[in-house]
Amino acid sequence: MYAKTFIPYFILLLACSNVAPEQQPMKTEAHAPAQYQFPYKLSNVETVWSLENELIEISGLSFCSSDSSIWAINDEKGLAYKLNSENGKIVTRKKFASIGDYEGIECIDDRLFVVKSNGDVYTLYNDDRNAEISKTELSSANDIEGLAYDKTTHSLILACKGSPALRDHPKKKNRKATYAFDLKKNELGDKAYFEIHDSMLLNFISNQNSLMGLGSSAIKKHKDRVKSFSPSAIAVHPYDDTYYILSSVGKLLVVYDKESGLKHIEFLDKNIHYQPEGICFNNEGNMLIANEGKGLIAKVHVFKMKERS
Question: What is the pTM of this model?
Fold first, then answer.
């Protein structure tokens, strides 16, 4: 009895082990994700624009694809400046408000958007209409420092330098938050769009290949710089929709993907980027970083994007 039942099972097992390769389930191997390739070499500056005195305290930068112009904002005057995209000279000035603390600008089709540090969003039109002001739940405690446009959600992304919360502001700020302002609904989301925690930055540089071989003193300096991360500008890359976030404090450029997380940290040269306050990309993917003048001359550095493989 046992022999009769054993033989069929043995034959069945043998048959299964000899299934043709194309009929067997394909084996998959776990591979480490491909290393992110930062598409710029920041030691190679393509062009430098020396800005006029009116923009000595430049606080925002935006590329307008409709006419390939550059728009800038000064963090004290209620003026938007249209710049020549070849040399950064002022072409047009657009008055939209009185003196205030304006920290970001975005050009979307035929409109300009400006954000105030308290979270107010200004809509500027290309005609004689007055600017419209949209109040949000954000406040001066959040200290908004950056504005970007996310075309995938048709939203403005506001980057907080201060408190990451809409209310009940924590004393210990161990994370930085962004919030999305929906342009269809004309309202701010009630939860952070994404957050970057200090621990994420510290873990990233601990594992970063570029730190291999560095002495303990150099590693400590890098860690101190990322712990001071405080957004001063934000932009969305036109080719892969990653977020490029500048931090004037610590002189950092952080690349973040909402789906896969932190992609890259670039330690900026303090001799070049003495106070980075604005960032944008043109149609070719070239990156523009604006630095406040700090009593001298404000400048925009243009970095050519590497050829895509």
Answer: 0.87
Overall number of domains in the chain:
1
Residue 180: inside a domain: yes
Three state DSSP letters for the chain: CHHHHHHHHHHHHHHHHCCCHHHCCCCCCCCCCCCCCCCCCCCCCCEEEECCHHHCCEEEEEEECCCCEEEEEECCCCEEEEECCCCCCEEEEEECCCCCCEEEEEEECCEEEEEECCCCEEEEECCCCCCEEECCCCCCCCCEEEEEEECCCCEEEEEECCCCCCCCCCCCCCEEEEEEEECCCCEECCCCCEEEEHHHHHHHHHHCHHHCCCCHHHHHHHHHHHHCCEEEEEEECCCCCCEEEEEEECCEEEEEECCCEEEEEEECCCCCCCCEEEEEECCCCCEEEEECCCCCCCEEEEECCCCCC
Identify whether 139 is part of a domain. yes
Residue 32 resides in a domain: no
**pLDDT by residue (tens digit) across 38-66?**
999 999 999 999 999 999 999 999 999 88
140-156: per-residue pLDDT in tens? Answer: 999 999 999 999 999 99
Domain range enclosing 60: 46-303
Is residue 37 situated within a structural domain?
no
The domain that holds 143 is classified in CATH as 2.120.10.30
